[in-house]
Amino acid sequence: MIVGVPKEIKADENRVALVPAGVEALVANGHEVIVESSAGLGSGFPDESYTTAGATILGSADDVWADAEMVVKVKEPIEPEYPRMRAEQVVFTYFHFAADERLTRETLDSGCTAIAYETVELPSGELPLLTPMSEVAGRMAVQEGAKYLEKTVGGYGILLGGVPGVLPAEVVILGGGVVGTNAATIAAGFGAHVTILDVSLPRLRYLAEVMPANVDTLYSNRHTILEQISRADVLVGAVLVTGGKAPMLVLEDDLEVMKDGSVIVDVAVDQGGCVESARPTTHNDPTYTVHGVIHYCVANMPGAVPRTSTLALTNATFPYLMRLADSGWEAACRADPNLALGVNAVGGELTYEAVANAFELEYTPLDQVLA
Question: What is the mean pLDDT of the chain?
Fold first, then answer.
C-alpha cells in the first residue's frame, strides 16, 4: 500500500502523523511511504530522517494526496484539503465530525473512507487513540489557565497554588475522564484547590480514592455547576460524548456569576464545546473575553508541544495504521471490531450514528456497508 503523510496546514499545527521509525517499519513490511517536504520539521524530524528510513519526499501536498492510497494525518482536513480527498482512498486522522457539518458533508461527497482516531473504542469504553492527546490537553489546560490568571494578560491576578497565608486558586473541572483527571493531577500538583464534577458515581468514587487531599469530587447537575463556577478561578471544560457533540453545560448568561478575570479553558471546543460562549481559537490568537471572563479555546492545544504530542500520538496510532496497511481497511475492520468503530464514512455513506444524529443525516451501519 502507498501511505501518504501530508504536512498539517491547520494554524500553528506542528504535529506529524508518522515518525521515521514508523516509516522504517512500514517499508520493512513492503509498503511505500510518501511524505510531503518539511511535514515533520515542526516536531523535530527533518526530511533526511524520513529518507534514511525509506520514505520518498514529495514537494507538494497535491502530489501526496494524489498518489496515496491511505492518507494519515493528525487534524481533520480543512477547506484546501476537501477537494484532495477522493473515492477509494482511506483517510486516517482525527475528524471530530459532530462539530463541523461542512467537513462531514465534504467528506461524504468525496466518497473516501474516513477512519477517525477519536471513535476507535475498546470494550472497556477507552478511546485508545484519543487518550494520549487528551492527556496532553488536560495537562496543558491547567498550564494555560495559570498563565491567563496573571494580571499582565488580563487575569484576576492570583497564583494558582497560593503561598503560605494566602489561599490557592479554585480550579473547577467539568468531567472526570482522561482530560479532567490529567487536569486535576496538574492543578493539584500546583497546590490549587480542585473540584471535579461528573455524572458517574463509580468514576467519582474512583477519583476520590486516587486523587490527593486537595481534590474534591461532586456530582454534576445544573445546581452544582452554577454553584461551582461562581467560585472558580479556572474552569476547565473536559466533557466528552464519543463521536458526538459535547453537551452544553454552561450557558453564556451563567458567566454573569463568575469572577471578572477568571479563566475558562474549554478543551471540548473541538467537539462543539461545553460552554455556550466558547468558539475555536488558535495559538496565534488564543483568548477572548466575554462578560469579564477570559476564554482560552484553542482547538488543537497539543499542537503547542508537538514533539511530545507527536511521539505520544504515534505510539498509539501506529499499530492500527500498520494493520490497515497490511490488510486493507475492510479486512482490518472485520478482524478488529474496535478499529471498525473508527469508520465514520465509506463511499458517501455515513456509518457513525452520533454524527448522523448531530446533523439529522441518514445513518448506514458499517455492517451493512461491508456486506
Answer: 96
